[in-house]
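Researcher: Let's do a round of design. I'm pasting the structure tokens now; please hold your answer until I've finished.
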């Protein structure tokens, strides 16, 4: 691996973690109060993120045809489901049993932070619209895996709230793709694109600040489960990325999708896993341990995995 490649990726990743740290500091100093979280996250998810999606997907040449979109979404689903299944069978080896964290550990390790950490990295490394547009189609599959394979593991597949996969960002992606497939994207006025660009630029910084604030809230809660804290980064950031990199290297897919898979494989556990555990009968303390441990270790591992993976796929 060329050292310059690593340093350039590190320079992209560090501001994201520093922004998280800023969110944590804002929380600890009272600048960002907990009661503001819900409204700010709703603003990000319901308005700012859809604006970013429209700006990056509508008219994007990389997502103009249905087959590549289906391939990207299918891989998004398959890789997450594979990670969840793999860690489910590994969990008993560190003493985790059903009802005491086994299922939550599996979901938290298998479901990566596919959105608000991955987006700024992809945007900075590949400023063209193509790669980020493909990232959003990949997340269609990830969202479906989250609400079926992930939540389904906690509640039972027959009770999984899969309809929640049809949230505002997903519906925006589907609508944007429909505009592309029908050719109606050509009729979106430039003033609308400019407005979406301005709104979308606010989505990621706000969400990353909130992630940092959430981690500050969770830090130090409960007794440390050392086996979880040690093994989860090994699996989420060391073993599971192998499957992502093998898929990116061997499959006959576009270069944009290869890049997206490499970045996704390097991501830590999604903070959203904690909410999933709390709402759907999981073991929340285990989710907290996995999120914090993988996020801390990813400060070092993520640039390494991305740099090596991009070299592997020839990007």
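Researcher: That's everything. Go ahead.
Model: Designed sequence:
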């Amino acid at each position: 691996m060329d050292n310059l490649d690593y340093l350039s990726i590190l320079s992209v990743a560090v501001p994201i973690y520093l922004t998280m740290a800023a969110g944590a500091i804002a929380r600890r100093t009272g600048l960002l109060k907990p009661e503001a979280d819900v409204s700010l996250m709703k603003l990000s998810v319901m308005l700012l993120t859809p604006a970013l999606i429209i700006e990056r997907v509508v008219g994007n040449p990389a997502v103009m045809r249905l087959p590549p979109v289906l391939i990207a979404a299918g891989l998004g689903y398959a890789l997450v489901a594979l990670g969840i299944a793999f860690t489910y069978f590994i969990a008993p080896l560190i003493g985790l049993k059903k009802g005491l964290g086994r299922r939550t550990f599996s979901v938290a390790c298998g479901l990566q932070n596919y959105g608000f950490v991955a987006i700024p990295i992809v945007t900075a490394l590949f400023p063209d619209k193509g790669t980020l547009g493909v990232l959003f189609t990949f997340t269609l599959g990830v969202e479906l895996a989250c609400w079926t394979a992930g939540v389904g593991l906690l509640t039972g597949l027959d009770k999984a709230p899969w309809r929640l996969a049809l949230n505002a960002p997903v519906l925006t992606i589907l609508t944007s793709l429909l505009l592309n497939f029908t050719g109606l994207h050509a009729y979106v006025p430039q003033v609308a694109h400019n407005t979406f660009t301005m709104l979308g630029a606010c989505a990621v910084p706000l969400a990353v600040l909130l992630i940092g604030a959430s981690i500050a809230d969770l830090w130090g809660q409960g007794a440390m489960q050392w086996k979880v804290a040690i093994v989860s980064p090994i699996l989420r950031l060391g073993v599971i990325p192998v499957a992502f990199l093998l898929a990116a290297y061997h499959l006959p897919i576009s270069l944009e999708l290869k890049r997206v898979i490499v970045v996704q494989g390097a991501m830590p556990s999604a903070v959203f896993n904690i909410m999933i555990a709390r709402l759907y009968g999981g073991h929340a303390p285990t989710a907290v341990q996995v999120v914090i441990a993988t996020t801390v270790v990813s400060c070092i591992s993520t640039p390494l995995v991305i740099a090596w993976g991009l070299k592997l796929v020839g990007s």
